[in-house]
Design goal:
385 residues; alpha+beta; 6-stranded mixed beta sheet; 10 helices
């Protein structure tokens, strides 16, 4: 089978536990060594602590232009998920391959690496660039350092394909994301004297209600883009922590909320609304009891949406390779929006596997998807010979 090599490489990639809070250096070393075996040099771009790294490599002529194949090496945790197989051992069942990252998105990386011998031996008219990043699952963190590197690099790609799982369908757009942590500082007292304290959980609830109110407004008034499953900007609170024991009025509560926004929407304006409500409607009544009371906002994650014109040269080129004139937009985010915004590199998303399997127990990729992805890369290589 043509994809036997891809599967063997995928087996190796899956064996590395690259959960985002862990180092990815072992898998990066594996990839760098693999590339060296084909005389392909690569550059590592480390994080501040040198415990994680992006990898960038160029194959073909040392000129501007060419296509960048982008993917992330980190995966989401398996803790508290009920797996029927070892998530770090590739397991084949009929036409499916199980393991953490098979779909999101080590399957794509395995396909790219399996084509390195062909890339090296091909008479490429334009270069192919490899960009493998860390901490995408935490908000495309590694991509920012990768962007700094590319900006200062002597050559720059002219287009990018992000290999996130799309069932090998062409994606021309996704929403942007920003998330905030909010710390509500109240005033503790005995629960029998509750009116004399400031219950941080109660005020967190009021703030959550405000966030929900804004979310409802967006669902009614838009703006709207009906190419999306949810055609408007969404807001939701995903984490809340507070209190210690029932007989103490809690003086602290932490919550996290996120905004998944259309490109036409400005998330900063929505954040301003939420902060204004906190400072003008909540804090004054809190401070009547204690001046120590306050609400603190901290930005955690932010990346832009992606949108490329359906008639863009890159879109038409990818449709020709796929032999499919359809395109879509998706709910999840990628580094593609950053490449387009920060580097002016037109970007699309197309890769093997389904987002429906990502982040879940018993994550899998269908072998048929790897075959489709391999055919796509082969056609891509043939088109730039």
């Amino acid at each position: 089978m043509a994809e036997n090599k891809s599967i063997n490489i995928l087996e190796s990639l899956i064996s590395f536990d690259t959960t985002s809070f862990k180092s990815n250096l072992a898998i990066i070393d594996y990839i760098q060594t693999y590339l060296k075996n084909y005389n392909v040099d690569s550059t590592l771009i480390y994080d501040a602590n040198r415990k994680k790294a992006n990898l960038f490599a160029t194959i073909g002529p040392n000129i501007n232009g060419g296509i960048m194949l982008s993917g992330h090496t980190d995966v989401v945790p398996t803790k508290q998920q009920n797996w029927s197989t070892n998530p770090y051992v590739l397991t084949k069942k009929k036409d499916k391959l199980y393991g953490r990252g098979t779909s999101d998105m080590k399957g794509f990386i395995a396909l790219v690496l399996s084509r390195i011998p062909f890339m090296v031996n091909a008479n490429l008219s334009k270069p192919i660039h490899l960009a493998f990043s860390y901490d995408e699952e935490l908000g495309c963190i590694g991509a920012y350092r990768l962007i700094d590197f590319i900006q200062n690099h002597s050559i720059k790609p002219s287009a990018c394909i992000v290999g996130e799982p799309t069932n090998m369908e062409l994606v021309i757009g996704h929403k942007g994301k920003c998330s905030h942590e909010v710390e509500i500082n109240g005033f503790a007292c005995h629960s029998g004297q509750a009116p004399l304290g400031v219950n941080a959980i109660n005020y967190a609830a009021k703030l959550i209600n405000k966030i929900e109110e804004i979310a409802n407004e967006k669902s009614i008034h838009g703006p709207f883009d009906y190419d999306y499953e949810i055609p408007y900007t969404t807001l939701h609170t995903g984490i809340i922590k507070g209190g210690s024991v029932i007989n103490i009025v809690p003086d602290k509560c932490l919550l996290e909320f996120e905004i998944r926004h259309l490109l036409e929407d400005n998330p900063d304006e929505l954040i301003k609304k939420i902060k204004k409500y906190a400072s003008e409607s909540l804090e004054p009544s809190m401070k009547k009891i204690s001046n120590l009371c306050k609400i603190i906002f901290k930005k955690k994650i932010s990346y832009p949406g992606l949108l490329i014109n359906k008639n863009d040269e890159l879109v038409l080129f990818i449709k020709k390779i796929l032999k499919n004139d359809k395109h879509k937009k998706v709910i999840f985010g990628t580094e593609g929006g950053l490449f387009q915004e920060k580097l002016s590199i037109p970007s699309i998303v197309c890769g093997p596997g389904s987002i429906d399997q990502a982040h879940k127990a018993d994550e899998f990729v269908e072998i048929g998807q790897l075959e489709k992805g391999g055919f796509f890369l082969d056609e891509l290589l043939a088109s730039i010979n």
